[in-house]
Amino acid sequence: MRLHRVRRSMVAAASVTCMAVALLTGCGSDGGSEGGVTKLTFAASTLGDPGRGPLLTKWLEEFNKSQSKVQVSAAAVPYPTFGQTILTQMGSGKGPDLIRFDMPEFEAASDAGLIAPLNDLIDVSKYDLLKQPDQFMVHDGQRHGIIFEASNYAMFYNADLIPKPPTNYEEFFNTAKSLTKGDTYGLAFRQTEAEEAGVWQDIFNYVYGFGGAWSDGQKLTINSPANLKGLQAFKDLYDAKVIPRGADAATFRRMFAEGKVGMELNNGGYVTATRGQNADLNFNVAPIPFPVRKQGAILAPIVINEASPAKEAAATFIKWALEPNNQVKLQEILGASSVATVTKRSPEQLQKTPFLTVFDDLTESSLPQIVQGFEAKTPDIRKIVVQNVVAALQGTVDLKTALDRAQQQASQLVG
């Protein structure tokens, strides 16, 4: 199990001391009591997802209907600013009571002592938790999170454009190139600093899929030969102009739904979002066709804010979420993702979406998008890596020099 020492240091305020967040009451933790009812706020970027957001809100309403003493309200915070916004609030001793974090921000908040330990609040022995991803929820014997969503990355492809999916990188490259004509592109991925977190998610698959890693657990290996090989494959696709350059994720995902993009590497949550944009799109999913069967995963814990005055009430919500029926409902909302516990796909689900088993079979080879051994520093390392990789894409520096520079800058950062 991957462990790291939890330091009780506060996260420094970013460029603001407290950002106003839509749907949050002010800038602090609600955790208040009104008429004997404890009111909580649950913040998650997925609540703003056009496909899953409304369904998640209804799921929260089911909790509220089942309770007389605790009520939870939804707070949708845009994904690009979610981590910085919430960490800044928590660092000021405020913020929502319950948060769905992505792993880099979860590690940073855990390391800074901003997350309430769950050992005394939730008895996890009562639940059949997924073992492989759940190990990342525990630090030095202290549980800081419960998996809200575990979503493995795979290759989405338009089955009308690609009857037979590529099974290796050469086929992947050639397929992307052959499909790129006029306003139709063979592939799409993020490639701008404005989408830093998304670029990190995209390049993660190329690094690990070509046998690389960001570290060996003790030292950073950003400029290793394997990393260079994987990121060169990423850059080759960019240079081949098989992607809509400059398009952000929202734009090229709409293009995929419209049949204007042939392939995209994405996580299981994208299934519901794609169907929400075009229910008639004939798409399928296959494992990413890179040399090594190892890919990223969106591992998203739900945590309790250390600053919340209503931790017991917040734990009530998490325990409700872990009940078998509520786990099944949550998994159906999330689409091709897994949840905290072992669940069984229904025959109806498998008939509607046969490729669900593709995602499920990838769980043991999927990794959260963090830097092993430097988990809490991942957001800072990510920024350095993405800046240098984007510079190489734009041609201001060659890729090897960019990775050498990233290695040096990140090594200085971590000491």
UniProtKB/TrEMBL annotation:
Pfam (any one): SBP_bac_8
UniProt organism field: Nonomuraea jiangxiensis
Keyword Transport: yes
InterPro entries associated with the record: Bact_solute-bd_prot1, SBP
SUPFAM superfamilies linked to this entry: Periplasmic binding protein-like II
Keyword annotations from UniProtKB, A to Z: Signal, Sugar transport, Transport
Keyword Transcription found: no
Protein name, per record: Multiple sugar transport system substrate-binding protein
Signal peptide location: 1-20
